[in-house]
Design goal:
GO molecular function: 2-polyprenyl-6-hydroxyphenol methylase activity; 3-demethylubiquinol 3-O-methyltransferase activity
Oligomer: single chain
Structural class: alpha/beta
Helix content: 25-40%
Enzyme class: transferase
Number of strands: 8
Largest sheet: 8 strands, mixed
Family: Belongs to the methyltransferase superfamily. UbiG/COQ3 family.
Pfam families: Methyltransf_23
Shape: globular
Number of helices: 8
Radius of gyration: 16 Å
Pathway: Cofactor biosynthesis; ubiquinone biosynthesis
Length: about 240
């Protein structure tokens, strides 16, 4: 069975790996957005002492924050260079409750079914050929009662203007070509995928960016960037 990866997507992030922890690089938006995402995660669940999986971890920005919150964290990704950057940064930071592995969610689900209390999957589903396959793997990986939190980009004209044209070509927030419109996911599609994977949808939250103040914030508007919390039934 072919791995659920897109080589062209992997190549984009491999090429930028060395700049992952440079806050003034192409990854500045990820650094700026990370506290907002973590605040949302904190509102959903306290990860301290829990087994946490960060899918599509890249260079480890969110993974490290989850570990600093006290979670026992495994970050997984299919890119080699960003994972090496993540491992080195964790070593330099002295973080011991964090590991990384180059593996797909689907393959990890075969190895470690039902072993994670919390799973995060941030800005990853729009970069794989089969998002539903990842969601099903997440359901398999979660313990009964476990929480999975997703973030992605809506698919509509407003999202195209703001997240692709605006962010990539006008404001240069992220490298040009980072996102493909046809791969974006509507909240209804993500929710339906979660339900098909036997996950209960608990709620949505939007994130917005102010180009004047250059700040991100949580909002009720899910028309562009949004997050979704789900839970695996306890029985």
């Amino acid at each position: 069975m072919a791995a659920n990866v897109d080589p062209s997507e992997l190549a984009k992030f491999e090429a930028l790996a060395s700049r992952w922890w440079d806050r003034d690089s192409e990854f500045k938006p990820l650094h700026d957005l990370n506290p907002i995402r973590m605040n949302y995660i904190d509102q959903q669940i306290n990860v301290a002492g829990l087994n946490v999986l960060d899918i599509g971890c890249g260079g480890g920005i969110l993974s490290e924050t989850l570990a600093k919150r006290g979670g026992n964290v495994l970050g997984i990704d299919m890119t080699d260079a960003p994972l090496k950057v993540a491992q080195l940064h964790a070593l330099e930071s002295g973080i011991t409750n964090l590991q990384y592995k180059q593996i797909t969610a689907e393959d990890l689900a075969v190895e470690r079914a039902g072993q994670f209390d919390v799973i995060t999957c941030m800005e990853m589903l729009e970069h794989v050929p089969d998002p539903l396959s990842v969601i099903k793997a997440i359901s398999t990986l979660l313990k009964p009662g476990g929480t999975a939190i997703f973030s992605t980009i809506n698919r509509n004209p407003k999202a195209w203007v703001m997240a692709i044209v605006g962010a990539e070509y006008v404001l240069n927030l992220v490298p040009k070509g980072t996102h493909e419109y046809k791969k974006l996911l509507k909240p209804s599609e993500l929710a339906n995928g979660a339900r098909q994977a036997q996950l209960q949808v608990k709620g949505f939250k939007g994130t917005s960016y102010n180009p004047i103040t250059k700040d991100f914030k949580l909002t009720e508007d899910v028309s562009v960037n949004y997050m979704m919390t789900t839970q695996k039934p306890s029985n």
